[in-house]
């Protein structure tokens, strides 16, 4: 699962979500905007950066890294990029902080000794999703983060819970955004299911989401109506795959090679 893309989508919907993970968030957390920045000479791009309001300079900038695969030089890269960008923009910011989000401690870089001062100070914040507690006791947006790490056997009931809770706690616009994100996460977990099966599992109508309408319209514009001629189920699967490709990148080949019958059987067993 391309979880980093899902997390950045979450941050785009609600930039203040990052600060719900921190013990001492800035007082103007609601005013931050989420963006990506480029650093030249050498050129590289940092995908997750939270920038303070421009009218409150100098402010504190936050770098965010979502890491779901082991990278033995992650801290070297993150600290080098963060320090260089801060150096090039020193007049704009008074300080920088880094937030690293892991599914569990087992994914963290093994050799952290060279970075002991930063990792044990107050400038770097390591978030381990499996240590945040019961998904049902967390804020809805944080719960969406944790949902990406939940085993398939529990994901369905937790996804339904988050959908129901979003309707109770949020307004219609926010609830729809949460519905789309839950759908994206679940389709990634059960990528071999048809559109109808995903709808039945979640108890929602995928056609009603903005994401589905956009992909449907895009399909019409590109002359891809032949999917409709292959039946309702085939069309649904094609549109879901296009949804994921557009929103969170290409599906990993390993996931594509899984047997459809096995995944379908397990998912439908959970639903029933």
Protein described:
With 272 residues, the protein is of the alpha/beta class. It has 2 domains: 1-149, Trna Endonuclease, Chain: A, domain 1 (3-Layer(aba) Sandwich); 176-272, no CATH class. The chain has helices spanning 3-13, 74-88, 116-119, 140-147, 152-169, 172-189, 195-202, 210-221, 226-229, 232-248, 253-256, 260-271, and strands at residues 33-39, 44-51, 59-66, 93-102, 124-128. It has a 5-stranded mixed beta sheet with strand order 1-2-3-4-5, with helices on both faces. A hairpin with a 4-residue loop joins β1 (33-39) and β2 (44-51). α4 (140-147) packs antiparallel against α5, α5 packs antiparallel against α6 (172-189) and α8 (210-221) packs across α10 (232-248). It starts with a helix and ends with a helix.
Radius of gyration: 20 Å
User: What structural category do the secondary elements indicate?
Assistant: alpha/beta
Relative strand content? 5-15%
Largest sheet: 5 strands, mixed
Number of domains: 2
| Gross morphology | globular
What level of helicity do the residues show? 40-55%
| Mean pLDDT, all residues | 78
What's the quaternary structure here?
Answer: single chain
The CATH class name of the largest domain reads Alpha Beta
**CATH fold naming of the largest domain:** Trna Endonuclease, Chain: A, domain 1
How many beta-strand segments?
Answer: 5
H/E series = HEEEHEHEHHHHHHHHH
Output the strand order for the largest sheet.
Answer: 1-2-3-4-5
Terminal residue distance: 25 Å
List the total number of helices.
Answer: 12
CATH-defined architecture of the largest domain: 3-Layer(aba) Sandwich
| Low-confidence sequence ranges | none
